[in-house]
Amino acid sequence: MKTTNSRSSRFGKNPFVHQLKLTGREKLKIALMSVTVFPVRLLLVSFLMLLAWPFAFTASLCRSEFVIEPQSWWRRFIDLSLRVIMRAMWFCGGFHWIKVKGERAAPSEAPILTVAPHSAYFDAIPVTMTMCSIVTKLESRSIPVWGTLISYIRPVFVFRSDQDSRRKTVEEIKRRAQSGGKWPQIMIFPEGTCTNRSGLILFKAGAFIPGLPVQPVILRYPNKLDTVTWTWQGPGAFKILWLTLCQPHNSMEIEYLPIYTPSEEEKKNPALFANNVRKLMAKALELPLTDLSFDDREISLSQGPLRIHDYSSLLEFNQLICRLGLRAGTTGKALEEQARRARKLQGDTLGLDDFAQFLNLPVTDTLEQVHSFFDQHGAGQIDIRHYVTALSVVHRPLKPMETLKLAFKMYESEETGEILEEDLAVVFEIMLGVKEVDLSGMFLVLEGPDTGRISYAELQNFIQKFRNFALECLDFKDHPRKFCVARETRCNGNNQEKNKDN
């Protein structure tokens, strides 16, 4: 696959990874706080949460999720009581003062608040301060105590088991947003997942489909030690709670930006509306934009012996096939069928029209971009096996051995079940997102005669011997080993020693 330097800059630092490194002094401070302050804080936080439960439970009785109800005096009293209890709970958790900038707009002026970056479960603080509705999965209301509090704010529930859930969720957001301020404001985190605040990932379009004014809200945690970030790879929920409650003070800033009113073009194009709001929020946060989305997280988090080394080209490929609607229809069975058809071509190359026919799609600019990804020599022809391999990688990035097995089915000899060294090198280039893979070192240490061929079983056994197979046993352009003079090696290093002895 082709790669360019601009792609790496577009994706930047991985937003789904948070590495928390503690100094000796910080470890000592946490140890002292763990046996003094932490137990007291945990007890107080738990007590206040339990205290809030009967208020929320009472107010939620006989309450419809779809009908607007007048705020009676006793509901207003419960609402005020819950705000006070929740603020006291956050205070006991170390959030002693929360700096609020700007002014929150009225629901009639901005029915939707878009909040970013979403990086912690402490992002619930502005929700409890405003009692806005949120969009959350249906399973959330089953959480003991906290689920009742969530139900109280009348959220828009997402039914993940329902295939039509996304459309129904957008329709409900639109219905409430167009009520003229009769429904509570909806607070939406358009990133759709938690990141490490290194940049703003792509926004989902749900908050912007109604085409109504939104008020951007930005969150900051200006602590010296970041114990609040909770994302896909890093400290778990309980560790974050423990470390945060062990901090003398936890800083937080909430800033309400001016209302953003969409243009006629933005009303017709929610993706454009979302991206323009994202740019505005990134500028206020002084953060870069990163062209990653919730759907890209598994690609950027691949691990193991065949982890993706440079995921920039695969991420761009993934976004293109999503635009074509190919990602949604990809299944293991569909991949097997495409691999079977690709094998029949026996390496024959396809032009753009033949490629479109293979996928049963019309020729478009996006399809031409996908085709060019695999046109290494600029001749307008591609090996369809390269495309199928890449599609398998982005479909199941956490299962590289399944992709490798699929590739063998397309490339292996019918007589021996083996694959040529040069074909395997191409497969690894696609799977790892790298260039110019050299397998000569690996083939030298394989047991048996060096025939330049290998079976899937032999390769599988060999990979299992090395925890970091790609880095230890393969050579490729810009390999990290080339920049580490004193790096210990196990595979290629051994080969080099053998070569010296010979």
TrEMBL record:
Q: Which family does it belong to?
A: Belongs to the 1-acyl-sn-glycerol-3-phosphate acyltransferase family.
Which pathway or pathways does this protein act in? Lipid metabolism; phospholipid metabolism; Phospholipid metabolism
Instruction: Kindly list the GO CC terms recorded for this protein.
Output: endoplasmic reticulum; membrane
UniProt subcellular location: Membrane
**Name of the protein:** Lysophosphatidylcholine acyltransferase 1
TM region positions: 30-56
Which keywords are on file for this protein? Acyltransferase, Lipid biosynthesis, Lipid metabolism, Membrane, Phospholipid biosynthesis, Phospholipid metabolism, Transferase, Transmembrane, Transmembrane helix
**GO MF, any single term:** lysophosphatidic acid acyltransferase activity
Major localization class: membrane
Report which gene this protein is encoded by. LOC103371351
Q: Which GO terms describe its biological process?
A: phospholipid biosynthetic process
Give every Phospholipid/glycerol acyltransferase domain span: 112-222
